Every structure is written in C-alpha cells, then in structure tokens.
Amino acid sequence: MERTWWKESIVYQIYPRSFNDSNGDGIGDIKGITEKLDYLQDLGIDVIWLSPVFKSPNDDNGYDISDYQDIMDDFGNMADFDEMLKEAHKRDIKIMMDLVVNHTSDEHAWFMESRSSKNSQYRDYYIWKRGKEGQPPTNWGAAFGGNAWEYDEASDEYYLHLFSKKQPDLNWENPGLRREVYDMMKFWLDKGVNGFRMDVINFISKDQSYLDGKVAGTGYGDGAQYYINGPRIHEFLQEMNKEVLAKYDTITVGEMPFVNIEEAKLYTGTNRDELNMIFNFDHVDIGNGKFGKWTPESWKLTDLKRIFTKWQNGLEEDGWNSLYWSNHDQPRAISRFGNDSDEYRVISGKMLATCLHMLKGTPYIYQGEELGMTNMKFESIDVCRDIESLNAYKDYTEGNHLTHEEMMEAFCARSRDNARTPVQWSNEVHAGFTAGDPWITVNPNYKGINAAEALEDKDSIFHYYKKLIQLRKKNPIIVYGKYQLILENDEQIYAYVRHLGEQKLLVICNFSANTPVFSLPEDIHYKSAELLIGNYETDASEALGTVILKPHEARVYKLN
Fold it and tell me: Is-catalytic flag, 255?
C-alpha cells in the first residue's frame, strides 16, 4: 500500500467555540487556539481539524455559513487566522478546514439574492420547487426536526433544507455554483491551509425525481435514498479533485452517513481521484433504539468488534479508514464506550485510546479526549444549547413519544452538547476556559479533570496519549500492518493482531470492569513478547499464554 503523510498523521479536532477564550467574552476564539499550540505540539499531533470559523449567524454553531471567505466575529478576524496558521506551521502542525457545502446559511448573499426573485441569476444556486396540492414538494423530514421544505410566500415556492430552515441546501446540479465552491477552496489552500474535512458531503447530489419517502416514526417521510450517495456524487467529487485537490498536497476526509464498504472504496480508492478517507457512522450508531439516539439501549462488545473488523478488512487493500471515538456531534468517548466512574475513568480512557490508536487508519482525537473529559449531567433543558437536541425535545415530547424525564436522560447520554462543554484547562473558575461567562455550562467535574493537573501527572491520560502517538510514529506496523481479529465471540475482551512482513503486534483490551482470562489462540506463534505499552503496572516478564486481565486493562505486545 502506498505510504503517505496523511496516513501517518494524528489529527486533533478543535471546536473553536469551546476550546479556549482569549478575550473574556465567554466564547472560544482563534487567538485562544494560537495560545494553546505549544500544548498541542507537546501532545504530538500533526494536523488540526478546525470546525467552522467562517462568518455565520450561528443557527447551528457555525455549520450555517453566511460568508465562506471571512471569519466569524465571535472568533476574531482574518489577521488572527493568518497568525494562527503561521504559528501552527512553525510547529509543523497542519490545518484542515471544515468545508460545509451541502448548504449555506439563509443569510448568505447567494441565498438572499436567490430568494429575491425567480429571475435572479442565483435562484438556481439553491433547490426551489412548487408545492403539490397545497403541501410541500415531498414529505421528507429534516435532520433537525420538522419538514425539509420551507415555504416562501413571495415566490409561492419552497426551498429544500435537509437540516435547519436557516440552512438551505445548495443545488450542485448548477455548474456555476460548483465553480464558486472550487474557487473558494482555492482561496483557502492558497493561504496555506492543508486540506478539508467535508461536512455531509455525500448529501450533495440529489435524485432529481424528488419522490416521497417512507413515513417514519416522526410522521415525516425518510427521503435518504433520494439524497444520500446520489446519482452524480462521484462525478462531483472527481470534478472537485481535478479542479482543486489534485493541484495541492492535501488531506481530505468526508463525513458520510449511511455508507457501506463498497461505496467507501469508491470514495477513497487509490485510483478513484475523490477523497483520502471518510467518516462512517456505524460504531457511533450502536445502541440506538426506536427513536435513534434519543432512546439509547445497551450494546454488545461483539457488535462493536464486528463493525470495526468489517471496516478494517474491507479497506485492507484499497481505501483508508479514519479512526474516531468522538467528535463535536458525539458524546464523550469515556461516557459512551468506557467507564466514567471515578474508579475507572482514567484506566478506561487509556484502554479506549489503545484500542483505537493501534488500528489501521488515521486516528482523530477530539478536544478534551486526551484529558479524559466526560459527559455532563444536564439538570434542565435550559442549559442545553444544541439545535438538534432542542428540536428533538420539542418533537418527541409534544408528539407524546417520550417524556421530559426520558429526554433529559437521553440528553445526558447522547446529546451533542456533551462534546461542546468547554475544554477544562485548570481548576480555576470556569475551568480556565474564559474570564467571562461561558456560552455553555462548564462540566462541574473540572476541578478534578483538567489539563494543568494532567500535565503534572506523568500517569495521566494525556501522557498516555503522548506515548501512543510516539509509538505510531516509530512503528510502521501500527499504520500499515494487516489486521486480524482474535477472540471474536468474547463479550469482554477486544483483542487483535497486526501483521507487517515478519512483524506482529498483539493488542488486548478489556472493555469490562471484570477480570476475564485472556488466552492466546494457538495459531498465533511467537518466540518472545515485548510489552510496548499498557495502562497498569505489569511485570514485563509475565508469560503471555494465559493472562488474568484487570478491569479495563489494555496491553500491546510486540511479538518476536
């Protein structure tokens, strides 16, 4: 397999609003990121994925863009961005921007022009349709609740918005619109930006038939088959690659819900000329119930292993995996997949990191993950800020599908706000995030979980992440080795072997608070075993054949 810098990189996601506030207004900003670049350099990451910093009215926290070539006032200005980019590059840290081009804000100049007249040259930059018998053009529901079509009285037509009504979908059928997008991408790449994470990029090609979808539990139609992995998606991405990406040395990752292995190969295959890698959602949807994440259920380790193994094996020869536990749209990893109790938070955080970072693919760390930050206990709907969560609360409680108590329990487990509480820098007021009033509540556990303490404690999750990152940089087998699952049916232990030439790595992760026995399968042959890393003090000379694992224990052995 071809070796490239982006396969060997570790990416760190920054959600700027919650990262670090430099001016005391309660909102994280670009200067706040610059202040923490030394911290990130110390951690050892190679690339920062920067969630949107573009001009935005903030209906969806920056994923509703009103100007692609300007900076949101809350975050600073272009001079701040240029300084941050320069300082990051000085530390050999690359910057990957968040490209949101399935939709814009309804306050973008293009949309305001589009809405002004049916004869506007921008009308066709968006998707406008006449209604059917006094109803919207289709029965599709929007991802953030309600109908996916918004009526415009002035023109007697509807525009499509797969997310909020303030996020009208762009019409990628229009070549003029596509040229505008490509020119905008060149603007950022010419500045020195190193690539793009592309928001719901597999939504951009719509089936032009615009048919109704099967009615779901919400009462709206599920139109996914008509806009996900649509008929011209590969044509559009190959055109983007030819017109823009191929002219630069970039890292690209597409956020792609509802993608299978064969489709992923089309998006990321070596000779496909589309993207480097994708984010799939299979493992973060595990445990979804009747109403998705709002009715969370227990999940099995064997299901998680099956999903990871499917993707590891599926993209073994062609394509590339992105590896992640959490991001700005997911709850905190330790609370979701580990054990966030006081007793096991640190241990299970290290175990999760081991499990993920030893897989084949490019690992992504979400801000605060390296500190072991956890979900927050939301006591009231009033402290929630996320548009998806607030709209879901309204839809499910008013529709008598779920009670207030059930929704609040779901918020604590799965709301996007769990990821958006401010990074906990110290045990000072507001966790050292801001000198003002934070835009969203700080998790009260910051006095015991914060960066200042983690940096001082050589046994912290932060220092464990540093070791994992250095191991990946020094051992090509971790990046490029073939994956082999062992103990497939074990519901407590996730163990696998990596192979590269004559080299072998054995990874053992106990996902339970029990003490299960690990027995190495007889077909895994070795002469000696060297312990590379573990989250407990371990006797390096201990025989490997049968091992009693401690709660949430992780070990990685180099088999000689």
Answer: yes
Q: How many residues does the chain have?
A: 560
Active-site pick, 46, 150, 199, 274:
199
Would you write out the chain's pLDDT as a tens digit for each of its 560 residues?
Answer: 789 999 999 999 999 999 999 999 999 999 999 999 999 999 999 999 999 999 999 888 789 999 999 999 999 999 999 999 999 999 999 999 999 999 999 999 999 999 999 999 999 999 999 999 999 999 999 988 899 999 999 999 999 999 999 999 999 999 999 999 999 999 999 999 999 999 999 999 999 999 999 998 778 999 999 999 999 999 999 999 999 999 999 999 999 999 999 999 999 999 999 999 999 999 999 999 998 898 999 999 999 999 999 999 999 999 999 999 999 989 999 999 999 999 999 999 999 999 999 999 999 999 999 999 999 998 888 888 887 888 888 888 888 888 988 988 888 888 899 999 999 999 999 999 999 999 999 999 999 999 999 999 999 999 999 999 999 999 999 999 999 999 999 999 999 999 999 999 999 999 999 999 999 998 998 888 999 999 999 876 677 878 999 999 999 999 98
Tokens at 499, concatenated: 């192979």
Look at residues 196, 164, 165 and name the one whose alpha carbon lies nearest to residue 181. Answer: 196
- Global pTM? 0.94
Cα 21 to Cα 56: distance, rounded to the nearest angstrom: 18
Instruction: Give me the catalytic one of 255, 386, 388, 417.
Output: 255
Cα 151 from Cα 130, distance rounded (Å): 9
In the block, tokens 């934070």 appear at: 438
